[in-house]
Specification:
single chain, 162 residues, mainly alpha, UraD-like, 9 helices, elongated, decarboxylase, purine metabolism, lyase
């Protein structure tokens, strides 16, 4: 879909386009209600800042749509398709290390490890995981929100390329 088409959509239709990028209602509404955007760069910049900060409940709700890194997302949803594409750089040889890291992360933070995988190698993702295991829960919430926003910006840019 082109940006021009997105800008012209009725509100509810635009919401359905934005929701797979990041399922946080306040964020979706802020993006949709900020239309029209002059460029894809403008909408992705907005994705990084609107409706912030997210509450812990909003973060947990958004994380519910993200599979564990290294696991193949199941289903035919837009979110699953995005995840499959974003995790393309994570190969099977890293699966055991990622599974172990995911268990350690979930034991410490009681939520799925989320990282913007697009453009990162499995080694990069594992290194970030090890670094983030040193965070406090409060520090980690800030990092998770940043990662959610980076993922959302990439997803919006992908959806709005014509």
């Amino acid at each position: 879909m082109s940006l021009e088409e997105f800008n012209a959509l009725p509100r509810e239709d635009a919401i359905s386009i934005v929701k797979p990028a990041l399922d946080v209602a306040r964020w979706i509404e802020a993006i949709v209600d900020s239309r029209p955007f002059g460029s894809v760069d403008e909408i992705t910049a907005a994705a990084a800042v609107v409706a912030g900060p997210f509450s812990e409940a909003e973060i947990d709700g958004a994380l519910a749509h993200h599979p564990r890194i290294g696991e193949q997302p199941k289903g035919a949803t837009a979110e699953a398709a995005h995840s499959r594409s974003e995790q393309a750089g994570v190969d099977a040889s890293a699966a055991a290390a990622l599974a172990e890291g995911n268990r350690a992360y979930e034991a410490k933070f009681d939520r799925v490890y989320l990282v913007r995988a697009a453009g990162r190698s499995a080694d990069d993702i594992l290194a970030l995981l090890q670094t983030r295991l040193g965070n406090t829960p409060e520090q980690e919430l800030v990092v998770i929100e940043q990662q959610l926003r980076e993922i959302a910006a990439l997803r919006l840019a992908t959806a709005l390329q014509s």
